[in-house]
Known about the structure:
Elements: H1 5-20, H2 24-36, H3 38-64, H4 71-102, H5 117-129, H6 132-141, H7 152-178, H8 181-184, H9 187-214
Helix pairs in contact: 1-7, 2-3, 2-7, 2-9, 3-5, 3-6, 3-7, 4-6, 4-9
Amino acid sequence: MPINYALLVTYLASIVLLIATPGPVVALVLGNAARRGFRQGLVTAMGTNFASLVLIGLAALIVSGIVFINARLLAGVSALGCIFVAWVAIRTLHGEFKGHRAGTKPLDDVIPVQPRRASTVVHGFLVGISNPKDILFFVAFFPQFIGITPSFPASLVILAISWISFDFLILTGYAAVANSPPLKRNGRWIATLSGLLLLAIASVGLFCAIREGFS
């Protein structure tokens, strides 16, 4: 089966840049890994992977013509995603602030210090599925790469496996870095900066979504 390698390489380069660029998912993985350890960062990455699979499925339905999303609806979905990310950021910062004032570990009132893996996976999934950057990529750009092979199912499998593999490897790398001894000692600051980054991304994304929706 012929493969358009030039298009595949372009796709791989695009997803590496997209995933590696700091965003809500990266901020969440960094914060969880810094405060709770590498394993929790890894479980968070698994949750975001599940969200990516859902978005890939949505992109496949759009390419197939089964689902149609107009620009205004896409802007509305992105706005809702930004609002959820902002809520996560505010809860994170509130937990850090309360923990600092009380002299206890932060985030205790948001998620237990040793949360169940299921809750961490769900948290990662919700941030991943509401990530405006990923929503725009899968809806607007992902369909452009579906022609890497003449077969639609084969192309979809290749694109999905490539995304999941690179996504998990890159996020695992971020979790490992955040869990390194120098950064681990400053876990409180890493988590706070992650919360601020989440809030900034959500604010900019919400502004752009509202502007697009009413333009």
